[in-house]
Amino acid sequence: QVQLQESGPGLVKPSETLSLTCAVSGYSISSGYYWGWIRQPPGKGLEWIGSIYHSGSTFYNPSLKSRVTISVDTSKNQFSLKLASVTAADTAVYYCARHVSVMAVAGIVDYWGPGTLVTVSS
Amino acid sequence: DIQMTQSPSSLSASVGDRVTITCQASQDISNYLNWYQQKPGKAPKLLIYDASNLETGVPSRFSGSGSGTDFTFTINSLQPEDIATYYCQQYDNLPLTFGGGTKVEIK
Asked: Quick check: B96 and A48 CB within 8 A?
């Protein structure tokens, strides 16, 4: 059974960098699939942030691309998210998730972590 | 970006009722459309992929249909455990985009 678990600080100061890690168990990242991040501001809808393949190929949401970096560490079977220059608008529950690729688009999100709330506040 | 418009934003129905949610894409997305269920405080769960394919383990009372720009999600015989917010999501093009969600409550 594939399981994902997010970890990282729950509070980040404005203008600083948000950093989260997603540990994957029950499946080797090196075996395939894309791995990505989706966020949800409190009481609002879902926003896709981006995804990465085990080879390191990345896809980012253009709305966040200038601030986002997703990386993978296959030796630890985990992947990470960094979001720079955060503001209060980046306060959200951040989910890591496995993405299934169909016709070259990693678009079916079949396994999700439980999510972690990150609050941006001084 | 492809915009996904869901309706209604909320609904109230009785146990046993048939519930229908619609999702409209701002352009043709073929059948590259998924439906998710999100219960309060939990991560979304994939229910339907490719517009009409039921994910393994999902009860058969859930179904989806449509192609192009117009899609429908149906719960046949609403159960108390179906109380949740439902989201559609397209993957014809990146970035992946979601509908605004439909909150389903019991009357």
From this structure: yes
- What is the number of helices (H) and of strands (E) in chain A? 0, 11
DSSP-assigned beta bridge partners for residue B86 = B37, B102
Q: How many alpha carbons lie under 13 Å from residue A25 in its C-beta half-sphere?
A: 4
The amino acid at B60: S
Query: Chain A residue closest to B30 (CA)?
Result: A103
Question: How confident is the model over A29-44, as pLDDT tens digits?
Answer: 999 899 999 999 999 9
Phi, psi (rounded to 5 degrees) for A90? -90, 0
What are the mean pLDDT values of chain B's consecutive 10-residue runs (107 residues total)? 98 97 97 97 97 97 98 97 98 96 97
Task: Give the span between the Cα atoms of A34 and A52, in whole angstroms.
Answer: 5
Give residues with Cβ within 8 angstroms of A104, minimum separation 6. Answer: none
Q: Tell if the CB–CB gap between B95 and A95 is shorter than 8 Å.
A: no
Is A57 exposed, middle or buried (CB count within 10 Å of its CB: 0-12, 13-18, 19+)? exposed
Query: Is B95 touching A (CB cutoff 8 A)?
Result: yes
